[in-house]
Model the fold of this input.
Amino acid sequence: MSKPASESPSGHADDSPPESADPPGQPKPTDYDAFLSYAHHDRQVAAGIQKGLHQIGRRLGQLRALRVFRDDTDLTVSPDLWGKITDGLDRARYLVVVLSPEAAQSYWVNQEVSYWLERGGRERLLLVLARGQLQWDPVHARFDPDVSDAALPVLTERGSLPAEPFFVDVSDDAPWDPNAAGPREKITALAAPIHGKPKDQLASDDLREQRRFRRLRAAAIAGLVLLTVLAVVAALIAIGQQREAVRQRQAAIQQRDQAIALKLTSQGQAMLGGVQGGGDERAIQQILAARAIAPGTGIGALLDTVAARSATLKILPLSPTTDGVMALGPDGRRIVTGGSDKALRLWDAATGAAVGTPLAGHTDDVTAVAFSPDGRRIASGSRDNTVRLWDAATGAPIGGPFVGHTEPVSSVAFSPDGRRLVSGSWDDTARLWDTGTGAPIGGPLRGHANDVISVAFSPDGRRIATGSTDYTVRQWDAATGAPIGAPLTGHTDNVASVAFSPDGRRIASGSWDDTVRLWDAATGAAVAAPLSGHTDNVTSVAFSPDGQRVVSGSWDKTLRLWDAGTGAPIGTPLTGHTDYVTTVAFSPDGKRIDSGSRDGTMRLWAADPDAAIGTPLVGHTDTVTSVAFSPDGKRIVSGGYDNTVRLWDAATGAQIGTPLTGHTGYVTGVAFSPDGKRIVSGSWDRTLRLWDAATGAPIGAPLTGHTANLTSVAFSPDGTRIASGSGDQTVRLWDAATGAQIGTPLTGHTSFVQSVAFSPDGKRIVSCSWDNTLRLWDAGTGAAIGGPITGHTNHVRSVAYSPDGRLIASGSWDKTVRLWDGATGAPVGTPMVGHSAAVLGVAFSPDGRYIASAGTAKTVRLWDAVSEQQVGAPLYGHTSRVTSVAFSPDGWYLVSGSEDHTLRLWPGPAAWPDLLCDKLTANMSHRQWSDWVSPDIGYITVCPRLPVAPD
Done:
């Protein structure tokens, strides 16, 4: 069995009975020829031995020469695991033991050999020396324990064996290959007694079988040569077949890649959901890899991950030895960690890379770390009962250790001016120290009845708060060390963290009773009821810089935000850590939260846990009815029921200039000209207006002619014409330069025209109406192209052409999105179903692969234009009907307008990979790619701006 020292076994190969090497009196299907016992460190040697025992002596057509029990694949962990092991031993004829210094330390290898010897297996024990020394002591019938560092304890006991056991020495054969001449000869010697043959006879039999195999292979090669000649003769005839084979091979590779991509996506989503181990970092890497190897697969998982982890800004993988002991520097650029390796380490907070060498000096685990307020020094506490100071720039120790505590130091904190340091200890005291000299200030702060595990200075440096395993919080005079008032009682378990509010008026405490409590620092009275929500110990608390919020971290692996005034929870928990959260802190500007965990990572979070991935653009005072991007993607135009047209900066979301006013009714349609210099708007005042996109000034007089409300406007691709739709049931064309109407109205609809769009070549116009139909028009003549396009069962609210002009998308009050042939109007595919209410807006992505739709159910949805399947989950954020959607020209953004008076700017499909890459510090390593993705698919750098993690 393979097993690390002091650990239980975990797996087993050959659990299902293979073919036997024995002659016709076949053994029972449950028998094994050999049981292979080895330590985990010797797994490669054990695998080679198993392979060799399978091969040597194998007859042609036989699967294996010998049946070998090994623990590498199929033996599952169960309450009766030892029973399964002993059952395997009972069913084996020989025990083969791989010896090494690591095996000698393995409890399980020793147990298996002891069991074997106890059941009379001394004559059927075979040994393989992988590393180390063995020397037989004939006097005491054992291996000499003073010399034999590879011998198991049971084999060094006097009289353990009747005579020196058979063993082969493979210690000089690394790297170990059972097919090499030396190792093969040794495995032959090992296999001979199991086969019941002399070594020479077994070797001769094996050589005979190999020659027989080579003869058959030579015959096969000759046949292949003949086939090759025939194939050359038939080459001209077979060209088509070869091409088909290539096509099929490519299809097979594509199917393989898609299958792997689906597996990666499924696993990644399971990791994000906490159903499968691996964590967010691996989940994101796998989902990105799925997209890289099969671009059409897993796109929905990209969107879902962007949405689900919108609050996660960065995942910084640090040392696995940190045990969650970490702190972020005041400038947010460096992280310090401490842990079980007795050292402190510095890390770059942007990349997660180690900075400098470990800070060594403590003689036991580092249990607490803190940066000074100016970031120049670091304080650390340790199980060695000392506090130490370090230069944060050089890592050099500052002075000697601060000695005084008589038990491990659990917590450290600097005073606001950095001149003093307070430490808490398991010796039930807190101590004050002069950071300049390292000298203690006064005597210990005594009063707690048990360990002091948390300390904090007030913002003015006059008071100290301490939390203890006596379930209380205490305050102390930082100048005299005298206790202030009575203990703050209420927690029912250890108080693991304390923090003062920025104004010093309140104290927050986190406890192993799973709650956070707020206290009046002046009176000691509890402020509000306990803050409940965590499901395990609360380990860390911190106030936001404005004092309005408290963040807490817990052993339930989550962070939670609370209203510091009322104690009410804010938003949903921040999830992603895979082990206890041990450290939380707000950034100086309050926009970010930093957390450390025993999972070895520090994470940076958006301080609003429910921040939607869509950024709201606020300014309109009524429903936003129409939105559009400028051709360069830098600006957005919107129109609304507040009778205004507004411009927005697409990068910042800020409004540009003042609203464009002039309409006397709702603005229901807006569009940029193809050169981005003009804007056209349509209104319920029955007019169109042109605007200078740079200055916002009106261009010319209003365009009049419609006899009812305007509902939609569009520029032709060459910018020379404008199309408009109206409640007067007509579509009209206008000269964009003069404002003159072109020709007569386009008539045919029998109800309000809701939306109009030009084809990309400008030759056709599509319109839709409350008469449940779409219509196609010749943009040059105004003539109808064919009859009404029917299929929707309710009002058709929006239409859009694909960028290549081959498709038209429409959205309807029948809750569906439909596709139509852009030239003929014939239906394409089946309706896209998913909206729970009317679809009010549709838009194609710039590459034509995706369709965005806006609905009255307050959501934006994305669809695959080829498969007609919804991409990911709906985008939530608007609080009322969504009326309009538009993609930016580069596909990086998607903008929507709503009856909630806002626009929202969402990341488009082109941005999703970068948004996920921004959360990482490195691509997966080549080894991880081979293990997680596939060794058969070449490595792809899925995040080009990030380094590749080392193997």
In short: The first strand starts at residue 2 and ends at 3. The first helix runs from residue 43 to 55. The mean pLDDT is 91. The two ends are 28 Å apart (CA to CA).
